[in-house]
Write a structure and sequence with these properties.
Helix content is about 40%, strand content about 25%. By secondary structure, the protein is α/β, with parallel strands linked by helices. β11, α7 and β12 form a beta-alpha-beta unit.
């Protein structure tokens, strides 16, 4: 539709709608172009057909509204978040209803840190699928390491923090230090070599990989695939202390333990000597109390056994005497004398027992025995 003005005498006047349409038509003649900026105010709702966001220039804080059809945005699978730096391909357009200028986006690509973040996410997913970050692979740290390996840069801070923490906590600790590059393109290969050399040292049974703070790009070597695999394949348990609390390079995920700072790493690999001495004293006292209780228990048992042995002969004699008395009572109850005491008598003829009245005849002399004596008698 051609934009026509309204003529008032010698003055041509455009309506707001006509003016906006004219500007929009003019903007459509501009070519598509790439624009660099930082994603902010990303708005993406389930029912919306368009994804809206703002491109911000981090240097001048200048802003540009942008919109992209949802289907095209989802097809890119960028998973963008606020704060990421991108290159956006599109052309300017004017929303005639509101007179607002915005960029009609056709494609988006990560740039700078955003590009590195995307690459790291892909590498993280790849190594995670191989099981390099699995908790089942994590090994416990030795309680009393014979020798501790330390791989770090030649900057004084990180090395000093680790050594100070170890020596103040456990002075007898033995430490082998390997200084290497920890920043730049050659850092990853140098750290892999140093890590392999330290782990191969005699008696080394735990290794600390440490670096002080730094920016995102400074810590990129610690997410290098070569170093991550070397950490995962290290023959002894390894503790990483890289960057700050909020930094999580991929080597942290592959390590057996991750420390928030180099000082914390030093505290992780050695026990506290004062606590060990206190624990030994408590254990010694507990053993002494236990030995004393055991001896006292055995003494009491021996005393009881002695008392039982001392009383055993008398108890045995008492039991035998009681048994004899019971048997004597039974014998006395069954003896003829007990029967006589109840008023019965024993009759003999010529020394033989008279068991039947028919066995004697009148005039025969017999002997009658009672409980308290005997007397002669004659049968009538």
């Amino acid at each position: 539709m051609k934009v026509e003005p309204i003529v008032y005498g010698d003055r041509k006047v455009y309506t707001v709608a006509a003016f906006n349409r004219g500007v929009a038509d003019w903007l459509q003649r501009l070519p598509t172009l790439w624009i660099e900026g930082e994603v902010t105010e990303l708005r993406r709702q389930a029912g919306w057909q368009t994804v809206f966001f703002t491109l911000k220039d981090p240097e001048s804080d200048a802003c540009l509204s942008a919109a992209m059809p949802r289907g095209q945005f989802d097809a890119l699978r960028l998973d963008l978040v606020n704060g990421e730096r991108v290159h956006v391909y599109g052309r300017p357009e004017l929303w005639t209803q509101k007179g607002e200028l915005r960029l009609r986006v056709m494609s988006i690509e990560r740039f700078g840190i955003g590009e590195h973040l995307a690459a790291l996410e892909r590498l993280k997913a790849k190594l995670g699928a191989e099981g390099l970050f699995a908790e089942s692979r994590k090994r416990p740290l030795p309680r009393l390491p014979r020798r501790i390996g330390l791989v770090t840069g030649n900057d004084a801070a990180a090395k000093r923090d680790v050594l100070t923490a170890i020596q103040s906590r456990f002075p007898p600790a033995r430490i082998v230090v390997a200084e290497t590059l920890v920043q730049g393109r050659r850092a990853a290969a140098a750290m892999v070599e140093a890590l392999s050399a330290v782990a191969a040292e005699p008696d080394v049974d735990v290794v600390v990989l440490a670096r002080g703070g730094g920016g995102f790009e400074d810590l990129l070597p610690f997410s290098d695939e070569r170093l991550v695999r070397a950490v995962a394949d290290c023959p002894v348990p390894i503790v990483t202390a890289v960057g700050h609390e909020q930094d999580t390079p991929l080597c942290d995920l592959a390590a057996d333990r991750r420390a928030s700072t180099p000082t914390a790493a030093g505290r992780l690999v050695v026990p506290d000597l004062e606590e060990l001495v206190s624990g030994l004293a408590r254990s010694r006292n507990a053993l002494a109390r236990g030995a004393h209780r055991t001896l006292e228990l055995h003494r009491q048992r021996l005393g009881h056994s002695h008392e039982r042995l001392r009383r055993a002969p008398a108890l045995l004699l008492e039991r035998r005497r009681a048994t004899l008395e019971r048997q004597g009572d039974r014998l006395r109850a069954l003896s003829p004398r007990a029967t006589l005491e109840r008023g019965y008598a024993i009759v003999r003829h010529e020394g033989k027992l008279v068991r039947s009245a028919s066995s004697v005849t009148p005039g025969v002399a017999i002997a009658v025995e009672t409980a308290d004596g005997s007397f002669p008698a004659r049968v009538e």
